[in-house]
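Shipment paperwork, digital attachment
Item: protein structure file
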Amino acid sequence: MIESNLFQIATEIEWQDLGNGIQRQVFGYDDRIMMVKVKFETGAIGVLHQHPHTQLSYVESGKFETSIGEEKKLLKQGDGFYAPSNIIHGVLCTEAGVLVDVFSPHREDFI
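Attachment content:
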C-alpha cells in the first residue's frame, strides 16, 4: 500500500513548478485518495484533459473559468466542482489563486 505521512505541514512540502504559471503541492494520499494544492498565476491555464480518476476541487482563493464537458462557470473562493471519471475538464485562472484537488484513486503520476 502506498501512503503519505499522517500529517502534512504546508511549510515542509515542496512546491513542484509545472511551468506556465502553475505549481503543485502534493498532500496526503493512499491507494484510494489523494489531496493536492495547485497554485495558479493570473492567466495560467489548466489545459483541457481527462483521466480515469474522479476529481473534486475546491477554490481556496482566486477566480477560475472552469470547463467540465460542455459546461462553463466562473468559480471564486469557496466554490468547487466535481469532474467524473474520464470527462474533459480544465480551468483558466482569471485571478491568481489556489485550487485544492482531491482524486480517487490517487494519481500515481504525481508521486
